[in-house]
Amino acid sequence: MNYTEKVMDHFINPRNVGKLETYNAIGEVGNASCGDIIKLYILINSENVIEDISFQTFGCGAAIATSSMTTEMVKGKHIDEALNVTKDQVAEELGGLPANKMHCSNLAADALHKAIADYKAQNGIK
Ligand code: FES
């Protein structure tokens, strides 16, 4: 299986790993077929901007690399802008993923959407 250098870099040196000390949104999703799980912790400020974000992923290398890249791509973005980030963009930023690993990038994007949806619901934002 061929991973790009960028995928290997984010897999070996993942950014924003662990649990934030302060957060106000969590998104957790699992993939039923492989059993992998990702949890995103997000701190959203009063301007609805993602001030900080981290992740914990129990999964394959591609899941870890896409989680890491997703956190980098949305940090500092308004939540509405962050919602426009798709799994395909994350894969593209990583220089591509092998076809049989594309599904792994669903996890981070889904967790991001879930966390922001929960935050919006909690704060009465439409
Ligand atoms: Fe499960 Fe990649 S094999 S997320």
Uncertain regions: pLDDT < 50 for 5+ in a row? none
- Series of secondary-structure elements, N-terminal to C-terminal: HEEEHHHH
Q: Which range best describes the helical content: under 10%, 10-25%, 25-40%, 40-55%, 55-70% or over 70%?
A: 40-55%
User: Average pLDDT across residues?
Assistant: 95
Amino- and carboxy-terminal Cα gap: 42 Å
3D structure, described in words:
- The structure is a single chain.
- The chain is of the alpha+beta class and about 130 residues long.
- The model has no long low-confidence stretch (mean pLDDT about 95).
- It has helices at about 5-10, 60-75, 80, 85-95, 105-120; strands at about 25-30, 35-45, 50-60.
- The protein contains five helices and three strands.
- Helices cover about 40% and strands about 20% of the residues.
- Helix 1 crosses helix 2 (about 60-75).
- It is globular.
- Bound molecules: FE2/S2 (inorganic) cluster.
- The site of FE2/S2 (inorganic) cluster has 9 residues, from helix 2 and helix 5.
In short:
The chain is α+β, with helices and mostly antiparallel strands and 126 residues long.
Task: Sum up the structure in keywords.
three-stranded antiparallel β-sheet; binds FE2/S2 (inorganic) cluster; alpha+beta
